[in-house]
Amino acid sequence: MIDLLIDWYAAMGVDEAIGDLPLDRLAAKPAPPTESQVAVTRIPAAAASAPTPVIAASPAGLAAPLSRPASAATMALADHLLAARQAAAAATSLDALRQAVTEFDGCSLKATATHTVFADGNPAAPLMLIGEAPGADEDRIGRPFVGVSGQLLDRMLATIGVDRDSAYITNVLFWRPPGNRKPTDAEIALCRPFVERHIALVRPRILVLVGGTASAALMPGSEGITRLRGRWFDLAVNGVKETFTATAMYHPSFLLRSPDRKREAWADLLNVKAKLKEDT
Ligand code: URA
Q1: Residue 41: pLDDT above 50?
Q2: How remote is the CA of residue 219 from the centroid of ligand 1, in Å?
Q3: What is the pTM assigned to this prediction?
């Protein structure tokens, strides 16, 4: 019977234990507001129709002190956000940032992850790619994009002559969400100071946001990946005066599910290739 139950859990994507004892959530009191209900304010997309709009990766609301009365959960989130911002700002090298991320305990995803997945590739390369979050393979191995979608990403990049010596790859989350669920706004907000510092330290000539989650995390606004892909933006990042040349493309896991979108992905890759040439 228990085997059947475990098989059913696995089929439903429940592949992580998050507590030692079962909890009757129906009997529990209503939960306090979730972290994602905190003001993760988004700025409106700036001049979306302009050729290279300047957009800020840090929504102003995140930097502002919380002035309304807050529940314990929102207070805890505000404390963790402050700690993340301070730890990220204090990191003056990639090694220091890796250590700061590894030591950061404010994002609960860390509790269920096997590894902190920081980055792979060459930080001196002109191209930086930012994906969503580690999956099961990345969590096991500790490097981004090593599973099936990572292998497709490698093949896609190879078509424009790019490999992990000529690109630097990371994610907007450093820990795997249990069962590969979508990350919450709060989880993204907690990692964002480190991601912005990551960009600031690497200073890539070209930044490619891979998939809808990375694009939404760093290009706040209401436009989805279908409208953002293939366009160039000047992305402003906390603590850096100049902006970064950025674009978005479909996530390889989406392309595995929707192979008919590969034509657009191919156009986007050629776009990146041309931009890389332009900037040399
Ligand atoms: N998908 C991502 O977005 N990142 C990874 O590292 C692996 C899969």
Answers
A1: no
A2: 18
A3: 0.79
